[in-house]
Amino acid sequence: MWVYILLLFVVFFILIFSIVYLVKLTHRFLKNHIKNKTVSWILSFVPILLFVPGLFIDMVNAIVVDIHLIIIISLTKLIFFIVKKITKKEVNEYLVLGIGIVLTALLMTHAYYLAHHVVETDYTIYTKKNIGLDNFRIIQVSDSHLGTTMNGKEFSKYMEDINKLNPDIVVITGDFVDDDSSYEDMVDGCTGLGKLKTKYGVYFIYGNHDKGYYNNRKYNDEDIRKELIKNNVKILDDKSLELTDNIVLVGRKDKEDRNRDSAINLTKGIDKSKYIIILNHQPNDYKNEVNNADLVLSGHTHGGQLFPLGQFGILLGSNDKIYGMEKRKNTTFIVNSGISDWAIKFKTGTIAEYAVIDIKGSKESGETMEKEAKVTIDNKDYVIDLDNNETTKKFLDLLPQEFNMTELNGNEKYIYLDKKLPTNASNPKKINAGDVMLYGDNCLVIFYKSFETSYSYTRIGHINNLPDLGDGNINVKIVKN
Q1: What is the model's pLDDT at position 366?
Q2: CA-to-CA distance for 27 and 41, rounded, in angstroms?
Q3: 445, exposed or middle or buried, with CB in 10 Å at 0-12, 13-18, 19+?
Q4: Is pTM, for the whole model, over 0.85?
Q5: Taking residues 333-361, what's their average pLDDT?
Q6: pLDDT per residue over 209-227, tens digit each?
Q7: Cβ distance 337 to 351 under 8 Å?
């Protein structure tokens, strides 16, 4: 909580500075045209008077726009100052101000679009564990903060879109509502969740805003629980349950709940041969969750919301990650940027999203095929998690292999193998960074960037945490692990 109090003081200081700065900046322009000092100073406050109604209509977002305006004008002035020093030519200050205002308008328009335009983000995770299925699909929805960028009925429409994706489960990872969410929006949102069609259910964990901070709502936590339960949404408050014989779901209380149990205690009685998924609203307990779960899903950060605020969360130690997917040891962590936001109706650092997470594992235990291969790329070692198919088996028969792979398209490296392999090509629609594929029957491809594709490939495996391999060819050695 102290982080938020500190942030509040910083925002207040920036607001006061912005007002003083804007008045002085306006006065500099006016004093050259209005000789009466009193009149010029009075008129210098006009931009602030125009800004004041915004404070009463929507104070938080008015402040956000004001701060961006001051920063962009300052940066514009700095750039033109450097240009002036280089060219020795005077720069019209009205031009500087005008460019700053236009750039701010363009940025905030785009930021408003990013906050209100919800996109689907796809992740594919490969596990060596037997999950009893070819694919297990999770849809993660986080940080809806109903009433900010969407009301309850609009939220429900997104649930209709999610139904078309045929989810096995849907998880709501906190901050479904906040202090400003109306009772009507809360009920409508829960009704939308009740219309979800899944194989194994819809699950909910609390975030730091769900129970409210100020008790100023027309409903309480018990009302939220009743509506969720009425709509067949299961609440996981430091609880775990077996979704299937091979997959276990664990839902944690929020970090701010003093009665929260530890990740170690919540998972210690679970058979570690099962695939364990933890839901934890705030991504800030990785040291205790790593190796105690296979997958951890979080929200809370809003993906950074306004650049560079997310970086401060990392520097202050309040979050372990801001956004995206990362693998630490045997655990994959995903932080969702949220389908909406708290109070702020702009995003300059990220997107509004729901996540589609496909977990791919083996159907049967007791497989004899190698599950991993070691790959060395320019003297750095990685592990390929291998798919269980005929192509991969034949590829393993060719190992060890050492070759120089050629760069292509700024997203992949390829090599033509000496021998042809059996194929079962299909269009994956999206390539994920780290995918190892066979194009045709003898072209081995390692992708180091994610993108959508219309081409067909046969999967061989996936390299976790593969960095951008950059331009140029690479030396690669692949051996059985």
Answers
A1: 45
A2: 6
A3: buried
A4: no
A5: 92
A6: 999 887 888 899 999 999 9
A7: yes
What is the pLDDT at residue 274? Answer: 95
What is the DSSP code (8-state) at residue 145?
A: -
Q: Is 98 helix (H, G, I), strand (E, B) or coil?
A: helix
The Cα 60–Cα 222 span in angstroms is 29
Indicate whether 334 pLDDT > 90: yes
Sign of CA dihedral 142, 145, 150, 154: positive
Q: How many CB atoms within 10 Å of residue 270? A: 15
Question: How many other CB atoms are there within 10 angstroms of residue 88's CB atom?
Answer: 7
- Describe the chain by its helix, strand, coil percentages, rounded to 5: 35, 25, 40
Q: Where are the domains of the chain?
A: 2-114, 118-362, 372-480
- Take residue 58 and report the two structure tokens written for it: 């929507």
Please, which residues have CB within 8 angstroms of residue 478's CB and are 6 or more apart in sequence?
373, 374, 375, 376, 384, 399, 400, 401, 402
* Angle value at C-alpha 134, between 128 and 135, nearest 5 degrees: 95
Measuring CA to CA, how many Å separate 229 from each of 154, 233, 362, 382? 21, 5, 34, 45
Q: Cα(223)–Cα(130) distance, rounded to whole angstroms? A: 40
Place of tokens 């205002």: 101
Cβ contacts of 416 within 8 Å, gap of 6 or more: 442, 443, 444
* Topology of domain 118-362, CATH: Purple Acid Phosphatase; chain A, domain 2 (3.60.21)
CB 422 within 8 A of CB 390: yes
Amino acid at 187: V
Q: Residues 433-449: pLDDT tens digits? A: 999 999 999 999 999 99
Class of domain 372-480: mainly beta
d(CA 414, CA 377): 13
Q: Which residue has the tokens 């030396």?
A: 475
pLDDT in tens, 390-437: 899 999 999 999 999 999 999 999 999 999 999 989 888 889 899 999
Long-range contacts from 41-49, C-beta under 8 angstroms, 24+ separation: 47/22, 47/23, 48/19, 48/22, 48/23
CB 446 within 8 A of CB 413: yes
Which range, of 41-50, 115-124, 261-270, averages the lowest pLDDT?
A: 41-50
In this prediction, residue 134 carries a pLDDT of 84
pLDDT value, residue 364: 53
Cα distance between residue 395 and residue 479, in whole Å: 11
CB distance 77 to 95 below 8 Å: no
Place of tokens 């002035």: 77
Question: Cα separations (Å) of 458 from 225, 422, 425, 435, 455?
Answer: 46, 9, 4, 11, 10
